[in-house]
Design a protein that fits this description.
70 residues; 2 helices; mainly alpha
């Protein structure tokens, strides 16, 4: 999703939605190929990564390190 422009979030054209659907299927196929043997055995997804990424201010440089409040 990072590769898509901001305007894509408002794009409801059927061709674009089919494109997103195809991307999703390819991603899920890839994930299953990589982790099929792990199903029901161990976690393969780190939700903390999603939260860390979504809470990162967009205006700061990638290598910017926040200091923790003391």
């Amino acid at each position: 999703m990072r590769e898509l422009s901001v305007s894509s979030k408002l794009n409801a054209e059927p061709a674009f939605l089919r494109h997103l659907h195809e991307i999703g299927w390819r991603a899920s196929d890839h994930r299953l190929e990589a982790h099929f043997d792990d199903l029901g055995v161990r976690a393969t997804w780190r939700p903390a990564f999603v939260l860390e990424e979504s809470l990162k201010p967009a205006h700061l440089a990638e290598d910017f390190e926040r200091s923790s409040p003391e």
